[in-house]
User: Which sequence fits this backbone?
């Protein structure tokens, strides 16, 4: 389980620390930096997959991601992540590509240092890197210098793929790759989830919800029909619904009390579709180690917040969950149901801080 994270220098997260629980709810007003926290975690997954430079380019490149506020003259222009997991501790620091680098990719990150320990922050070092060179601990416990230099814009987690010789790196990479993020489920008229489609066994809901009906059917056929029905009944009492038209064609249809025909997905409200998507994401038959929901309350009627909290409580038995929300009623409902850790963010002089952290100017210290 992810126990804590420390992010420094990324957009508004100048020096941000957060302790995590089995369920953590991050709330705050618009513009305080909640999305930056969500993106910073997603970047770690892209880093493990070998798409770190690509992900940063999608956000505008390394220069645009750096803290843009006041800084000391000797304060390095760098971004760093430190993550404490129940199994490992990972730290990574990156900066701007050197001006004398003979490459056209000037906005790529330049990974300066990385350290991976097993057994906590003071545990055994299994891999460490400074610049392009690294030392790696093999399956016999010996530290070896990597025979090849690493690409400056990618992590050693993605660069080292030999899971037999370096199992700790492979195991850590797998943890990150299994993280799951859901931001917005597209529900406009052209959304794929509003159209009938040929389905296949779908234990994991697509990020855009396009395989919604097939994922719900997979949950049912996997033996989790009761919790799914309970969640829908709590949200929409008396509702009937089905998923398959026959011949392998799937589409969510519902029959509301008092109506004489089923409504197709194309006729459903945004909130109804999104609640079904949240059911599919949280009742997944392949639970991830970490699930991050960003503003799941969007388009939901206030009456659906308590049923959503119930879904989150049930899902937390099988996975760690982070909910990022600006809806304080949802935060309180989740805390009621599952004793969640609450973290409310505020903005101070452009910097994201935890409420109660204070506004006194701190003395900043940086490594390297």
Assistant:
């Amino acid at each position: 389980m992810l126990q804590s994270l420390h992010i420094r220098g990324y957009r508004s997260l100048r020096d941000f620390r957060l302790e995590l629980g089995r369920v953590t709810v991050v709330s705050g007003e618009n513009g305080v930096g909640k999305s930056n926290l969500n993106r910073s975690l997603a970047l770690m997954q892209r880093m493990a997959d070998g798409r770190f430079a690509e992900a940063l380019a999608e956000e505008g490149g390394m220069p645009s991601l750096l803290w843009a506020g006041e800084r000391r003259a000797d304060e390095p222009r760098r971004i760093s992540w430190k993550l404490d997991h129940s199994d490992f501790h990972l730290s990574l620091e990156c900066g701007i590509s050197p001006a004398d680098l003979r490459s056209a990719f000037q906005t790529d990150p330049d990974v300066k240092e990385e350290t991976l320990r097993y057994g906590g922050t003071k545990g055994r070092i299994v891999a460490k890197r400074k610049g392009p060179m690294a030392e790696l601990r093999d399956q016999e416990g010996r530290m070896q210098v990597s025979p090849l230099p690493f690409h400056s814009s990618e992590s050693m987690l993605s660069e080292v793929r030999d899971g037999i010789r370096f199992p700790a790196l492979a195991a850590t990479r797998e943890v990150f790759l299994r993280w799951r993020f859901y931001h917005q489920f597209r529900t406009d008229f052209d959304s794929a989830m509003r159209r009938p489609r040929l389905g296949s066994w779908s234990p994991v809901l697509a990020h855009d919800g396009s395989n919604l009906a097939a994922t719900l059917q997979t949950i049912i056929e996997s033996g989790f029909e009761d919790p799914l029905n309970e969640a829908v009944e709590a949200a929409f009492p008396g509702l009937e619904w089905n998923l398959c038209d026959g011949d392998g064609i799937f589409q969510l249809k519902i029959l509301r009390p008092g109506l004489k025909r089923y409504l197709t997905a194309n006729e459903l409200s945004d909130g109804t579709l999104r609640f079904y998507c949240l059911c599919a994401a949280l009742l997944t038959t392949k639970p991830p180690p970490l699930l991050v929901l960003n503003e799941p309350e969007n388009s939901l009627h206030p009456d659906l917040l308590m049923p959503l909290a119930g879904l989150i409580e049930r899902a937390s038995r099988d996975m760690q969950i982070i909910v990022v929300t600006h809806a304080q009623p949802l935060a309180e409902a989740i805390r009621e149901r599952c004793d969640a850790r609450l973290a409310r963010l505020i903005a101070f002089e452009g910097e994201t801080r935890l409420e109660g952290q204070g506004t006194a100017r701190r003395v900043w210290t940086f490594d390297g």
The chain has two domains: 2-20+36-179, 184-286. The chain has nine helices and 18 strands. Residues 212-235 form the longest helix (24 residues).
